[in-house]
Each structure stands twice: as structure tokens, then as C-alpha cells.
Amino acid sequence: MKPLSRWSGALLGAAILAAGISGGSQEIAGIRGFRASRVESERELEQKLQSIPTAARAEANLRHLTSEPHMAGTDASRRVAEWLRDQYRSFGFDAEIVTYSAWLPLPLEVKLEMTAPEPRTLASPEQPFEQDPDTYDKRAVPGFNTYSPSGEVTAPVVYVNYGMQEDYRELESLGVSVEGKIVLARYGQGFRGIKAKLAEEHKAAGLILYSDPQDDGFVAGDTFPEGPWRPASGVQRGSILYTELHPGDPLTPGVGPNPSARHVLPADSATLPHIPTMPISAMDAAFILENLAGRHVPRRWQGGLPFTYHVGPGASQLHMKIAMDYAERPIYDVIAKLHGTNDHEWVILGNHHDAWVFGAADPGSGTASMMEAGRALGELVRSGWKPQRTIVICHWDAEEPGLIGSTEWVAAKRAELQEKALAYINTDVGVTGSHFSAAATPSLKEFVRDVTRQVGDPASKGTVYDAWRGHTARSFDEISGTARKAPKPEIAGEAPVGALGAGSDFSPFLDYAGIPSIDIGFGGDYGVYHSLYDDFYWMKHFGDPTFAYHAALARVLGVLALRLDEADILPFDYSAYASEISREQNELAARAAQEGTQASSLKPVAQASAQLSASASRASLSLRAVKATSIDPARAKELNRALVSVEQTLLTQGGLAGRPWFKHTIYAPGTYTGYAAETMPGVSESLDRNDPATLRIEADSLAAALRRAATRLDEVSNLARGAESSPAAGH
Amino acid sequence: MKPLSRWSGALLGAAILAAGISGGSQEIAGIRGFRASRVESERELEQKLQSIPTAARAEANLRHLTSEPHMAGTDASRRVAEWLRDQYRSFGFDAEIVTYSAWLPLPLEVKLEMTAPEPRTLASPEQPFEQDPDTYDKRAVPGFNTYSPSGEVTAPVVYVNYGMQEDYRELESLGVSVEGKIVLARYGQGFRGIKAKLAEEHKAAGLILYSDPQDDGFVAGDTFPEGPWRPASGVQRGSILYTELHPGDPLTPGVGPNPSARHVLPADSATLPHIPTMPISAMDAAFILENLAGRHVPRRWQGGLPFTYHVGPGASQLHMKIAMDYAERPIYDVIAKLHGTNDHEWVILGNHHDAWVFGAADPGSGTASMMEAGRALGELVRSGWKPQRTIVICHWDAEEPGLIGSTEWVAAKRAELQEKALAYINTDVGVTGSHFSAAATPSLKEFVRDVTRQVGDPASKGTVYDAWRGHTARSFDEISGTARKAPKPEIAGEAPVGALGAGSDFSPFLDYAGIPSIDIGFGGDYGVYHSLYDDFYWMKHFGDPTFAYHAALARVLGVLALRLDEADILPFDYSAYASEISREQNELAARAAQEGTQASSLKPVAQASAQLSASASRASLSLRAVKATSIDPARAKELNRALVSVEQTLLTQGGLAGRPWFKHTIYAPGTYTGYAAETMPGVSESLDRNDPATLRIEADSLAAALRRAATRLDEVSNLARGAESSPAAGH
Fold first, then answer.
1. Domain end residue (candidates: A536, A566, A596)
2. Rounded to an integer, what distance in angstroms lies between the CA atom of residue B91 and that of residue B89?
3. How far is A320 from A208, CA to CA, in rounded Å?
4. Number of A:B CB contacts under 8 A?
């Protein structure tokens, strides 16, 4: 009996593949998307690739990357870019630097003082520690928030907990207004740009953000340099750009970089904040909070400082002054290509290289690992292998200010990317511990699980997948007080793959260009985010002392790239996508039903979702029926193109209501959450706002997108059937 | 049409009564248990009673009660008892003091010092505050735990969070042993006696209890004297007697007071702890905790002190020394009777009068309010009313060391109480705020709701009931971080009445003698429990500044007593009891089923529960069918006696496995929780321990109790039917 061909394995049950069953005892396990005849050679290739990355090389990479502070817009950032380019050239890549000029003001002065009840200078620098000479580096930028305007304010203070929407609602119920006041908000629960926007909307005169010990300091665990958490003097830098409207250069909204004719003025930019904003440490915040009057805060507003918090205002008065230099600065994207036989299909990997200070975890750990993946791929080429497709590795500049390097590049190359890109694989804070996590478009979730089943976990005898499934089953606060809650598994008993929100460079690829995307990393206790202390010492003592997880991340990245490069038929699973859409649609319908009259607007969505499910099922069956041995390369290419392009059918040309840059109808960051993904954002947020007119428009737009996807999947079915009965097939 | 008689109203739907519907527009609303002809006069009597208590008198009572520290075993406690006796005599009561001698050691020396890494004297006294001269009183006893043995220990320290069972399990998983160490545990989550027992079981050398700011200090809200929460120097005194085995004098287990021939020696007492134990303040605990080494604690073990907690041990070494005087002391129960026409039926109210220091909230607020209820009842007698039954008001001594005054009195009078007592109504920490709460045997839950529907709430235009139902619907942490979570309502939309656990004087009445019981009070933010700061200043500034809630509590207590005194047929609702039992039995069966083979042991319980439900329904119907006008007093008395005695049929003579004093098969404090009620404790704890042999015995004992209750309810049905067709009835 001829073994059942399985290059359409993407559509077989995961259980069968996981068990390595392939129809006969002499056979090796199949690989989703590979003809049986190619499975063995692919396994060998992956084994070879996996043998190349080393912890020592990753450590050396990170030591170099963290040798000086290298913020976007500085010469050091250019030096890192040049080094990366040269490294990739040495690996055998065709590497170049793409330079853009971006609106990137840096601070001239950031000053904060308490003027009453007693004078005190605040906004103190981060404390150095003898154990770690890097913390004495004078080149570290002081705490500031990118895109704060210049300004000077003297006003009393009101504390607003995390400064998110529900906090302002609570404040209102307490009868306290922030109008004309300086708002003090702690970091956490949402993107800081949302906090700036809400403070502005509530007419605050200024905003101070601080790191509460409860969220990432001593309440969570031992602080640096004794432990991985934020010391009392640690400051979280960060951008407050309104990226929920669009990321990228605030002066080139929705267009490519440098088309100077179409630049807007800073005053006309929709994404630049309007009130002075700065970050401070817990230690400085304590002086302010201790002097607030008013009623004591609701229980869940109380943080970790050792006194009862009060809402304010009170005797204490602050004087804040911020002077920015309002300048454009050059940024440097590194684009490295390993050309394949087919140079018109690209597998893209990326991470940013700019850092607030040393950036050991963010982004150095991801960069150091990705370099090892790149080196491994280069080694394979040196040993005689030729990629089927082109592998593109990107190291973006100016991610921290607002995903600028990636957004501008995607905008400039949108048409080419939509034609050529098969997928985008991102890592950013690549390693802060041993807990693997992933987010992806639903079509790629099972693919990510597949690959992690092939890579060994450094700490256990099992695979990365086994460890991942094990730790997500544990409850959240046993591990850390601040890590994001693990997403619920989409499939019971499997490791969960989350939805892609925002906060890193996959956003322009997915949200703007409709490229299927993946984001991965190994997480752990990490309290030094965006501070001086996110440095080599931190990684060597807490994040990944042996660098074994850097090497593991390099292997996962490498195998992800290799399989996408080598697959006969791309391992995209649209049945999974359709069922996630169907589940979400049901939840939205239930919400709409609760709110009464608006439910009818969602009927077209339900119908289109059902159509999509049917088309996805048919496509799955058609692909399963294809005999692997009986397809010619031209047909396979056409089929693959159709599979990739399904994601783009989910874009809507005009974008979401009020934020046209975000074109994806299924995923976007929430307008008032910022990092977390909002599913079916147009419909969901119209329901939140109780806006029936917009709801109808967004529901129709979503339904149209789902119908387009269904139609495209019907084409996939036809191509699959055609492929099978192709004259080129040898029966 | 003759109006439908409704003195069996206990068995009509609550909705009908609440709406005041009574069959015709000219009629007044019925009262559960009253003939229609008596409803109007009862309403008048209740109105009159409610008009008597005043906030000013309650305040004066509290000012007197808190004029000096009056711990059990001291002369001041005798002075309070004598004053209470004299007050009740002035109200017209027949009042006397009953004196017992109890094992009641007091501390000679309580010393704690850190010997390493640096010497420091701990166990500091509570700090006085200028605003409140009472806090300078030298007569306040220093922090100590009653029934700690004398002892001296020098040892390193291990922190065990709350020191409850799950904490020791977690500690074991961390690989840390407390053997030979001093255990540091924070107060909260369970009775301190359980913490002592667990530390002893785990072979600790000593135990230190402290108040963490997260639980009742600055994390919860402003601290005394700026707010109602515990200041950093505040110490929680309290007993560590193993009352989960039995409360009362540890040398008279399960027998009455002073039968000297049957005293056991202290060394042979089952309820005396064996390792030195003392309480300290947050401020002192901080010095110890800061010097602990080992790994940082699991997230939920971290408290509110401003550093990362570690499990220990470490460099720090403690020397603790406790010297107790091992003496018996006299205690003084005050028993005040208002004799009724029928002196063989008693309605009993009670609270303790002993306090750790001034005891403004605990127990003064309850005492001051109960005195006003007593005065009001006395005034009614002076104005010509004569109680139908005898009202007994008790003020217990030595509740704080272990419910000694009440337990010894109940033990001495058990037979008489089981013959005469209709119900026991307790209040203890009577007023700490404005949120009414209640716990009761299920037969009396609707009765408690009924009465609170008749008393006005001081803060709103509605009744105590309306306010109670409103606030329990609010989420827990909006009110306070430490108050007990509101119980789930037994009936959707109604205010919830909880189950009776332990921790106050209802325990001997219910758990040992089977007297139907009620416990009530008004709660709020209260962080000064068992400290120097629970004083008049606290009550006047935070707990109840106007004393309006004291007056409201007096009214609720008074109407509860009056209705039980005056009811034609006692308002006990055994259908409600049967359905709570049925629900609990279902939950236990589900738990047993999960654990497999033990499920069959519970079959007799299910059968008996079904039998009880059927009998309760029949009894309800029979009582509803009774024509109020057609019953003679002798028959009514017999019926009432049968109704009261149903509770006693739920006792099992031999008591629960391992703790024979606890005789109630449905309710007991949990063996390893201490305050919270465990329902069907014998069965439930056997399941917890996975002990099938005991489970079988306890299930049979429970089933037998349920069958006895069913039989007694069948007698109620027969009596009710007999009563209706009684020859004495005038048709």
C-alpha cells in the first residue's frame, strides 16, 4: 500500500502529527505542508540548522549590542545598524541599511520640583550600583516620554491610579476633576499613549507617569541588582505617541517615508500629544503621593508605597518643565536578504535594534537570538543548501518612539510586500526568562505549535512545546505579579497562542498590509523595562544567565523560517481562522443582543461568518485530497499565493472608523487599551460606544471582508482540485 | 368575607408579606406568627418600643463601658459586671451576677529581641496619640496571646504568610521546614488558635503573629487617629485556645463549671497550646522581615511593608520569652431576666462584656446597644405591658479568652435551656459602621429579614433591610480590604443571612445545646480590632460618630425579642432549613462523586434529606391551614415546643468525630479555618481528609439526625392539624 501523501498535513488533525503517526512503522513523521518524499531531508536540514546556534555566540552578540546606550536618533544607533549589516554580510546575506528621516525630538530639559508644602527637586536620575559598572554610564538619556510637547506647568496634583478609562469614571464618581491639574498615574494596565490621551481629554494641565512598586518593583520581588525587579529609583522611559490612530512618523500619516510634499506640520498631526508628560521613579512619586489630600483611594487604587494613598488634590504643588528640541533625525533600518531560488516569495523575520538605554532584554535578547538564526541559515547555504524562497531579516530602528522604522518601510514597500511576503515573524523582548509564549494570526497558530515541538527546552528533557503547555497551565501569580495573563487555549489541552495586539513591529505588517504574522519570545520576571537597568548584568544574572534560552529562541526562529521557506504547500490553516471568527462573532452577537435593538446590524456578519466557515471547510477537504506527488510547481505557486492572500481579503481599504491606517477587520489594538488586541475592532468598539450608525457601517464592512475571504478560499478549493487533476500530474 | 387568618404567616411567601398585602384594602399587613386580631396591637407595641432607644443614651453607655480597660480576670471586669447588673435592675429586670472560677493565666513578662544580625528590642508598646488621652492609659495590658505557655526560645525565623494549612503546603513545596524555628505569621484568613495549632503540628519552636498593613493597616486606608485602620504600632491581642475542639475553660472539657472532681490538669487539656506565641505590631515585624533571607515569597504572600518579603531563615535570630502566671481567676456573667406570664419559655439575648483594652467596638458597641434594648423592654413593662414569655439578657465575661462565660453557663444549664430556650440572639462587635449583616440558623433567616423591614435606617429614608440589601449587592473591595466577603443570598434578590461559624457566644447555644440562634451587627472599616485604639475616640470619629447605628441596633434587638416573646406561633421556617440542607447535601454528593468510591456512603444522607424536605413541606402546609382564631393556648404551647425542638434533633449525642463537644450535625466551625462555618462538618471534613471510614460513620450520624428532624416535623404537622380541629376552637 502506497503511504498516504501528507504534504497537505496542515489540514490533518494535530493529534495525529503530534503523535508522529504516518501510516506505517517504517515511515517517519510527516511535516505539515511537505510531500512525504521531502520530509526526511527537511528533518535533516532542520537538525543541521538547530546544531548551529550557540549560547556563547548569543552572549557575545548581546555583550556587543549592550556595549553603549543606543537610542534611536543617536549616532550609537547608526553604529549598531552598521555592525548588524556587517555581521549579516559575514553570514552570507545581501545586507543593506535603509535610511529615513523621521520626526524625532529629544529632550533638552526635563525638570520636576515640588513647590509646596516644601520645596524638593524630583525627576532624579536612576541610581548607579557598584556591582554593575554599566549603570554609571553618563550617556544614558534621563527619563522622558517621547513626543511630549515642550511646556511648563505649576499646579496641584490628582492621583488617577493607572489613568485608564475606568479610573476616570471612578474619579468622576468621587466628584474629583483633573481639569487644570497635574495628573499622577502609575504605569501598567495599558499603553502609556492612551494615558496621555485620556489626561488630555480630561483637560489635565500635565501628566506624570511613575512605576509603582506593586506593579514591577519590590512588591513583585527582589529588585535590581539583587533581583530582576525595578529598584525604587528606576524610571520607565517610553513613547506617548497616539499609535492607536497610527504608528510611524507622526508627520507622514498613512503614507510612505519622506514624500516631503505630503508631510503634515507637527501642529496638524493627529498622533502627537498636547500636554507635557514625563516619567518618574517610585521614590520620587512617594514624595508627591504622601502629600496628597482628599479621601483615601478605592482599595484597588492603593499601590505598594508604605502609606495610604489619597486622591488629591491637596497642599502639594508641582512645577514641571519640559523642553524638547523638535528635530528630525535619521533612522537606520537594516535589511538582510538570503536570496532563494524563487526571489519573488519572501519569508520575513524582524526585530528592532534601537533601545532606550542598553536594551539587553528589549530588544537586545531578540536581536542576539535572531542573529544566531541568521548565522545558522547562512551556514546552511555555505554547506551547499539553497533556499527555495528568499529569507529577509530586518532589524528596525526607532521602534521605541512608535514603530517608525518598520512602519515607514512597510508603507514604502506595501505593494511589493503584498505581492511577495508569505509571513512576518517578529521577536522583540526575546528572552527575559524560560516561559515561551506566542501570538499569531489564527492561520499560523498550529504551525507555531508544530515548530516548538521540534526544539528542545533547555531546562527539561522535553521540547519547548511541552514546557510551554506545562507552564501556561499554572496560575498567573505563582510566576509574577505583572506578566500578562496567559491567553486561554483555543484548543483544550494545547498551549495557547494569543492574538496580535500592538506594541511591536508586526503591527504595520498585519494591521496595515495584511501579512500573516507571528510574534514569539521566552518570558520571565522582568521589572527593569525601559530603564537603565535593562542591561547585560541584568540578563547575565536574572534573565538568561547561561544564554541557553537565547540559543533556543534562535532555533525556533530558524526552524520557523526554514519550514516556511521549504514547504511545498504553505502550512496555513483557515479552518482554525474561520472557527475563531465564528466564536468571536457569536460573542459579539450575544453582547449586541444584551444591548437590544442593535442586534440586527450583526446579521450580515453572522451570515458571512457561516459562509466563511463553509468555504474554509471545503478548502481544507480539497487540500487534504490533493496527492502530494501529483502537483506541478507552477500550480503549487498559484495555490500558495492564493493561501497567503486570504489574509489581505480581510483588509478594508478605508480602514476602521476614525483610524483609516488600521485596515484589518479582525484585529487591531484597542482604541482605549493600546497593547491588547481587540477582535473585530470596528464592530466591538461601536458596541462599546453605543454608536448604532457606525456599528452598521463597520458590520457591513466586516461582512464584506468575510465574504471576500470565503470567495478566496473557494478559489483555493478550485486550485487544489485543479492541482490534483493537473495534466502535469503523473498517475 | 372573613379575612384570611395569618398567624402562620411564617409559611407564606416573603413577597406577599413584604408588599404588605393582606387580602383587603382595610387590613393592615400581617406579621409572621401572629393572629390577625393581634397584629395591630403588636405593631403598636413595636412602635412604642422603637421610640425608646436614643443615640445619646447609647453614647453615654459606651462612654461608661470604655472608661477603663476591663479585661476578663481583672477587677475592672467585675466593676463592669456590677454596673451592668445595677443598670438592668434600674430597668426593672431581675438581674444577678453568676461567678465562676476559670483557668485564666495573665502575662508576667512578654519579651522579644532580635539578637542577630544586630541587637534590637521588639514587642514594643502601642504608641499613644495626643488627640486621644485614653491611649496614654497605663492599665492597658501589653500585647500577648492568652493561653500561650510560658517559654523561652532563641531561633532563626521563617515567614509563613497567614500560617494556615495551604501556606504550610506551599512552604513544603519550596523545601523550607519550620522545625525548631520561630514562625512569623500574619493575622487574617482564619482564627489565630488554628495558626498556633498548625505551628505546633509543624514542630516550630515558637510563633509570632503580626498585623500586616495590607490586611488592616495603611494599605486598607487611613490609620488611627486619622482614620479607622490600624496604625503601624498597633497590636492585635487575642486567645489562641484550640476552640475548634471546644470553647470554654480548658480544664472543664465538656462539663459544667467548677465540678472540681472532674477538672483536668493543664498538662492534660486538649485545648491548651504548647509553643510560646505572641503578637507584635507591623512596625516590629518589619525589622524581622527585612532581615530574612531565602527566596522571595510567592506573590500572594507579599504584604504591605515596603520591601520584598523573603521566606527565611537567614541571618536574623530572635529571642522570645513569655512568662505566664498560670492562675485561675473569677469571671462574672450578668444574667438579667424580665419575667413573663409564662416563665418556662425564654427568649435569650447576649453579648460579652470583657474587652482586651477599652473595647469600644468589641464588645462595647453591642453592649451599649443591647442595654438600650433592655431599657426599652423595661419601659414597656413600666407602662403596663407584661411579656408573654421571659426575656433573658446575658452579658458574658471572658468571651475573649475562649467564650468561657457563655460556655460554662450553657454547660451548667444545658437541660433547662433545652427545655425553655426558644432562641438565642447575639451581638458582639455590634457597630463599626453602617452595613447591617446577620447570620442565623436557617429557620430564623426570614424572621431576621422581617424585623429589619420594620426598623428605619439612619442614613437613608428606607429601612435597615433596604440598606442591607443595597450594600451587599456592591462589590467587596469598594468597601474595605478586610471585611468578610458578604455571603451569597440564599434567595435571589434578598439580603443574605450567613451561616453561624464561631468566634462569639452563640457557639455553645447552637453547637452544644441546639438552640436556634441569630447573630447581628452593623459593620464598616475597622482596623483596630483587639488593640489599644478600639476606644471611645475611635467610635466617636469613625465607627458611629452620631451613635445613630447604636440606636438602630437597639431597635432591631428589641423588635427581635419582642416578636419572639409575643408570637402566637413561633416564626420558624423549616422549609427554608430543609432546602438549605438539600442544597448542601447535593454539593457534598457532587464532591464525593468527584473523589470516586466514597459516594455510596452519602446515599443515606440523600434519602434522609429528601424525607426531611417532604416532612418540612407537609408541616408548612399544615401550619398554613391552621385557623388562627381556633387554637387554644395549651395546644399552641405544645406546637411551639415541637417547633423549637426540631433544632435539637439535629444534635448527635456523641458529637463530631474527634471533637465530641460539637454536637450539631449541620453547623460547626471548620477544624482548620476556625471562624467560618463548615456545613455538615463531619461529612465535609472526612471528605477533605479522604477518610472513608469516618465518612461512613459521620454520614450515618447525619442521616439519623435528618430523619429525627423529619419525624419531629411530622409531629408538628399532627399537632397543627390537631390544633385546628381542637374542641376548644370556637367555630
1. A566
2. 5
3. 9
4. 55
The pTM of the full predicted model, rounded to 2 decimals, is 0.86
DSSP 8-class letter at A225 = T
Is B217 part of a structural domain of the chain? yes
Q: What is the ipTM metric for this complex?
A: 0.81
- Give Cβ neighbours of residue A46 (< 8 Å, ≥ 6 apart): A454, A559, A562, A563
In a domain, A271, yes or no: yes
| A44 catalytically annotated | no
**Do residues B202 and B280 both lie within one domain?**
yes
Does residue A277 contact residue A249 with C-beta atoms inside 8 Å? no
Question: Which has the closest alpha carbon to B321: B139, B124, B123?
Answer: B123
- Determine which one of B59, B126, B244, B399 is catalytic: B399
| Residues linked to residue A728 through DSSP beta bridges, in sequence order | none
**Three cell numbers at A164?**
485608564
Q: With an 8 Å Cβ cutoff, are A296 and B481 in contact?
A: no
Please give the span between the terminal C-alpha atoms of chain A, in angstroms, as a whole number: 15
CB of B426 closer than 8 Å to CB of B517: yes
pLDDT band for position A103 (50/70/90)?
very high
From the list A526, A535, A215, the residue with the least C-alpha distance to A360 is: A535
Q: Is the pLDDT of residue B21 over 50?
A: no
Residue A135 near residue A533 (C-beta atoms within 8 A): yes
| Residue B582 exposed, middle or buried by CB count within 10 Å (0-12, 13-18, 19+) | middle
CA A255, CA A243: separation in Å to the nearest integer? 15
> Which of B161, B216, B218, B226 to probe by mutation at the A interface, max A CB count within 10 Å?
B218
- Decide: helix, strand or coil at residue B347: strand
User: Which pLDDT score is estimated for A6?
Assistant: 31
Say which CATH number the domain at B70 has.
Answer: 3.40.630.10
Q: What is the pLDDT of residues A335-354, one digit of tens each?
A: 999 999 999 999 999 999 99
- Greatest alpha-carbon pair distance for chain A in Å reads 90
Q: Could you tell me if A380 and A292 lie in one domain? A: no
Mean predicted confidence (pLDDT) in A259-288: 89
Provide the residue range defining the domain that includes A656.
Answer: 573-724
Decide: B501 and B439 in contact? Cβ < 8 Å.
Answer: yes
Inter-chain CB proximity B221 and A481 less than 8 Å: no
| Interval A118-123 mean pLDDT | 94
Give yes or no for a cis peptide into A363 (omega within 30° of 0).
yes
Pair (A450, A518) in one structural domain:
yes
The domain boundary residue, chosen from B566, B588, B616 = B566
A277 neighbors A242 (Cβ within 8 angstroms): no
Distance from CA of B487 to the nearest CA of A (A): 20
Beta bridge partners of A427: A520
- Out of B220, B308, B478, the one facing A218 most closely (by C-beta) is B308
A306/B221 CB distance under 8 A: no
User: And the C-alpha cell for B192?
Assistant: 489565630
* pLDDT in the model for residue A470: 87
Give the residue carrying C-alpha cell 473591595: B477
Q: Answer whether A481 sits within 8 Å of B299, measured CB to CB.
A: yes
State yes or no: pLDDT of A282 exceeds 60.
yes
Residues of B in contact with A227 (CB under 8 A): 296, 308
pLDDT at B95 over 70: yes
Q: Which is more confidently placed, B1 or A474?
A: A474
Within a domain: residue B270?
A: yes
- Average pLDDT over chain B, rounded to whole? 90
> A21 pLDDT exceeds 70?
no
Distance separating alpha carbons of residues B692 and B695, to the nearest angstrom: 5
